[in-house]
Specification:
2 copies of one chain form a homodimer.
Chain A (H helix, E strand, L loop, with lengths): L2 H28 L5 E5 L6 E4 L4 E4 L3 E5 L6 H20 L3 E2 H8 L14 H15 L8 E2 L5 E4 L1 E5 L2 E4 L8 E2 L9 E6 L3 E5 L2 H9 L2 H4 L2 E5 L6 H13 L4 E4 L4 H12 L8 H4 L5 E4 L4 H4 L8 E2 L2 H12 L6 H13 L1 E2 L12 H12 L6
Parallel strand pairs in A: 5-6, 12-13, 12-14, 14-15
Antiparallel strand pairs in A: 1-4, 2-3, 7-10, 7-13, 8-9, 8-11, 16-17
Helix pairs in contact in A: 1-2, 2-3, 2-4, 3-4, 11-12
Amino acid sequence: MDKSTREEIGKEVIKRLKEKFGEALIANLKEEEALSLDIIVRAFSNIIFDEREQLIKLGSKTQSRAFFNVGQTRVFMQTLLVANACKSLIESGKTTSIRSLYYSTKHNIGNTKENTFEEQGESNPIIEDIEVNINALREELHLRANSKGAMVGNLTIIDSGDEIDLRKMGSGGWAVPSIVEPHTIQFKKCDAKFVLFIEKDTVWGRFNEDKFWKKHNCIIVHGGGQPPRGVRRVVKRMHEELKLPIYVLVDNDPWGFYIYSVVKQGSMKLAYESARMAVPDAKFIGLSSYDQEKYTLPDEVTIKLNDGDKKRIKELLNYKWFQKKEWRKELESMLKKGVKLELEALSSKNIAFITDTYLPEKIERKEWLS
Amino acid sequence: MDKSTREEIGKEVIKRLKEKFGEALIANLKEEEALSLDIIVRAFSNIIFDEREQLIKLGSKTQSRAFFNVGQTRVFMQTLLVANACKSLIESGKTTSIRSLYYSTKHNIGNTKENTFEEQGESNPIIEDIEVNINALREELHLRANSKGAMVGNLTIIDSGDEIDLRKMGSGGWAVPSIVEPHTIQFKKCDAKFVLFIEKDTVWGRFNEDKFWKKHNCIIVHGGGQPPRGVRRVVKRMHEELKLPIYVLVDNDPWGFYIYSVVKQGSMKLAYESARMAVPDAKFIGLSSYDQEKYTLPDEVTIKLNDGDKKRIKELLNYKWFQKKEWRKELESMLKKGVKLELEALSSKNIAFITDTYLPEKIERKEWLS
């Protein structure tokens, strides 16, 4: 995407910011009404699971945020401050972190001892409100989150004008940035047939060192544990724009399974962004709770579930987006066996077992969950 | 470094492994002595601060680890297991994570219910013992730690045979891998005049977006908070091999100052590796406890020190490697003012203040601590 397209997106977002947080209030004033914004509710009560799209989403409940309501004056003022800061940011063409935005909007109010914000915990939810209410991703507001994760494989990308061949990124790889929207990252030559998303960076290192992506013609990416927004979004874009299937490889524990569910269906916290972040087609390729028997892994490489694990499994089983038969079977089997299994446990066969045998077999035999 | 040099290093490390953990024991047997290893002590009691080299180091105290001592039999056996696994790893030419090594050495002992290891907390210290006792870095044993951090700038590198121009790495950058030893990473064309080490990835993002490294002809690197081994080691190598000065930019709080001290002098935990990881010449360029007045930052962007911060400052002031006058002045001023200051606080001027004004002024006026 060239500079002019990028400016067009910026203009569109600014237009929506103005409509929602400026013109609506001017209309209030003209009509001599009390100043008030309609804000979509981002609470559990407004979270729905869209069965057809298989996505966790926000419903349509709204509540008003009024200037003349003593309990809402502060958050009303904060909403306009942050909306205005985002507008300036987009106009400047720069991006910044949400922490930096907090500092740049924090100041003393007039001659009082009141500050606009006391802590970042006040400005973060407002950023989310703005995203939801003008239907723009945080990245389109030019806001950066923390970045982690790396990617290599049979793909060439353009990042901020630089052409980067992900086939020639050595052992380190390309560090996935926080903002991977089309105005920053474009995809060029792609020979890959699928994307392998790996939970852990050290396991990704094994796949990269063994040049798995070259042998099996794919792209490998990790998000250093629970993947940050940038990694989820780049995976989503590769799925949509390059039409690549996504395979997810995680530890066999409730946390790993949850990471899979987030990549696939979205999360409650970011329910309003599922449509742009989640990949309903993503496939769970391992570790399965049945892999210990299948690959005759010794008992001593399993780890006993602790109370936190068990509690988490039961929570997951209660979510309405965890009701697929195969998912329940996995989680119930985990609970019944009472053990979890880490990706590294496959090293008890040999350190390259995961790349030489495990993954190729799973893919060839189509042994995955949908 | 080519493959043959890499193999030579591997041979040398294997030779030392054999001498220390094999031949010494064979000598015991021949002399009909009890099997015993002399192991260098890695406890606080054996940590010294080398005033001349300005490095935290291990002293020369050793203790014996004997097979026929009931309290030591288990750790004796574990030491040989891990040493043997490292030898196999080097011979295979592969690298692996310390977690994977744990799993590959964990197994049942004969027909007993005993396992060689119960948890990774048992194998990690043995890896450190081996590093110390044969004077090899973990990376030379082919062991990977977690990786985080990214790097861009006026430098071309070779990573595992791939030439990577760090001037053309877009917004993401090159993800710094865990192993950056000369057999994996080599430096090629370098125009940079210095290295800027930045504590936080989002602040690094600001410097990269503003192309600070291009304007000021340098290399910028971050380690996502407390830097991992790979980042510390690549900074050290750039200092030694490319003769580049290192500037460290951290939050003005005890944790930021501690990161600076680790980059410069090493840490207690990795005292045995200071000589290969630390850069005694590294310079602290900010944030200083005096920056609030100097740059007229408003009070509301400072953060009150909490009890943990105050305790940590007092601890640092007690370390013998924190006795430099200027360091004490900084920490004492922080304590006296009772506030800390984050890098993002400079955004209260404007979001590019840190790259346009703050850093260039500091460097031009040589305002740093040594």
